[in-house]
Amino acid sequence: MKGLVFSLALALSVLYVQADVPLQPDFQQDKIQGKWYCLGLASNSSLFRKHAKDHMKDSFTTVLTTTDDGNVNVLTTIPKQDRCEKQNRTYIKTDVPGRFLTKNPRYGEDHVHSVVETNYDEYLLAHSTKSTGRQVFNILTMYSRNEDVSPEVIEKFRALAHKFEIGDDCIVYLEKADKCTSDD
Ligand SMILES: *[C@@H]1O[C@H](CO)[C@@H](O)[C@H](O)[C@H]1NC(C)=O
Ligand SMILES: *[C@@H]1O[C@H](CO)[C@@H](O)[C@H](O)[C@H]1NC(C)=O
């Protein structure tokens, strides 16, 4: 019981921090389904600052599907040296439309994912609050329906990063990968 109260308190405090995170008004979950290209990442994680700029350059794809119970299945395909790595996750819906939870498999803490802004058929900007043990950090993601994205969307993404005090040196733009972008 004590553990339950504690984890509830933790979950509430993680949700509370989200008060600053904007959400797409009138969010329509069925319309975010299908394939997206991830073309931008930004984060205030110190690991990201150190490594992402040098090591991340290929875009990856994510296929979103609404499950029968209203959650979102997130299937990501990431190009690695000689293969395509697939990650299959379920984002659990919350009472707030556009906001989802996952658990950190290693530490059991809640990650909160929010759809900040989307027009459904062109771009989707997402915010996640994650934690690895002690460090809490934000990750912003720029998704596009196509393998490139308009300068206007890039500008929206930059502005969003700046809103979360993430500077241009912690924004990575990913380029079209020559593999792992087909549906298989
Ligand atoms: C992903 O996981 C969900 C449920 O956990 C399952 O229904 C679905 O078939 C999985 N998809 C793939 C491609 O593995
Ligand atoms: C990242 O930003 C969030 C608030 O926007 C803050 O709570 C967190 O401590 C920051 N993390 C790092 C590693 O700077």
Commentary on this structure:
With 184 residues, this protein is α+β, with helices and mostly antiparallel strands. It has three helices and nine strands; from the N terminus they run αβαβββββββαβ. It has one domain: Lipocalin (Beta Barrel), CATH 2.40.128.20. Strands 1-2-3-4-5-6-7-8 form an eight-stranded antiparallel barrel. A hairpin with a 2-residue loop joins β3 and β4. The model has no long low-confidence stretch (mean pLDDT 87). One 2-acetamido-2-deoxy-beta-D-glucopyranose (NAG) binds next to β3 and β4.
Produce the secondary structure layout.
Elements: H1 2-17, E1 34-43, H2 46-55, E2 60-66, E3 72-80, E4 83-93, E5 99-103, E6 110-118, E7 123-132, E8 135-144, H3 151-163, E9 171-173
Antiparallel strand pairs: 1-2, 1-8, 1-9, 2-3, 3-4, 4-5, 5-6, 6-7, 7-8
Bound molecules: 2-acetamido-2-deoxy-beta-D-glucopyranose (2 copies).
One 2-acetamido-2-deoxy-beta-D-glucopyranose (NAG) is lined by residues 44-46, 135-138, 164.
Derived from helix and strand composition plus strand pairing, the structural class reads: alpha+beta
CATH architecture: Beta Barrel
CATH domain class: Mainly Beta
Q: Which spans of ≥5 residues are poorly predicted at pLDDT below 50? A: none
